[in-house]
Amino acid sequence: MTNAGLKNKGKTNDDMNERRIAAEEYANVSLSNIGSISFDAIAAEKNVENMIGAIQIPLGYVGPYKINGDYASGEFLVPMATTEGALIASVNRGCSVISKSGGAYAKVVHDEMTRAPVFRTENISHAVKVSDWINENFDRIKNVAESTTSHGKLVSINSFPAGRSLHVRFAYSTGDAMGMNMATIATEAASKLIEDETGAVMISVSGNMCTDKKPAAINSILGRGKTVVADATIPKDILEEKMHTTAQAVAETCFRKCALGSAMAGSLGQNAHAANMVAALYIATGQDPAQVVEGSLCMTSCEDIGDDLYISVRMPAIEVGSVGGGTKLPCQKEALDLIGCAGSGKSKKLAEIVASVVLAGELSTLCAQAAGHLGKAHSRLGR
Predict the structure, then answer these.
(1) What is catalysed by this protein (predicted)?
(2) Is 176 noted as a catalytic residue in this protein?
């Protein structure tokens, strides 16, 4: 079969089936399970090209989980899609303990999506002049950028000269959309104005200081998407009864593992396994799974307060939306409906739920490691 045979001819079920049959014949395999989908192919017309079916990933839930957020407030059954045995059981244990202790507290403290083009300048003097022009003409740039979108708002611009390269980091408020496409289109328009007025040449609309889908210190420090913090305090009696460990043991495990171990490794994320929970939630709710990378920048900390355990997570880059992207796909929309996060006005609620679930997963795993039970649990549930 030639590339022309795979050319995207539309998203109707007939087109999808024709394309899948061609792939089966080319590879001499059966794709009957991939072809058995529960929704009309037209529903995915803006999510995939050359569609031949769908991959089904096992879906479970944790909860009811009590969350005391500014946007997510109440008890939730939270969907998680994964192929890793023991993950949902572990997270659910953390949810149960936190709920019994009064619930998780979560707050969105920053909310900006970034796009950072790189310009070629004549020399460092020119780069500085361009930076100065950008600072002096923020309102003009803002008007041009925002003319491309009805929801996005340009919040700030920061310039970083390096030789003849000038990296310019635009930050936007993007409403309930994750906002990458919105930020890209707006930044392209703004960059054309900068080119016309300064003589700098945009080489790429993404110069990697955004930084998208790569671990980066700038995102860990300044944030990208939604920066969310979450915490909980677990009383001594609940910790010993449910987790079979002590606050002192968990705090020491977290310090030597998440703080010292991460520093020794040069890790940009200081956590037990935050990406596990982020990936399972992103896949279930139609987020961009590649942005699990930024979710892994989580910092987990524990303290023993008397004999009680205080645990918190700081997640500087939760990049989620409650509209757009994969959120409109039928299964993913149902998963969002399960936690009341589908549609407008729900993206910050979703971000608080993500951070709270990460908190539960971190608690459970750190307790299991402190008690020496991690291998036993994976042997029982994961094999």
Answers:
(1) (R)-mevalonate + 2 NADP(+) + CoA = (3S)-3-hydroxy-3-methylglutaryl-CoA + 2 NADPH + 2 H(+)
(2) no
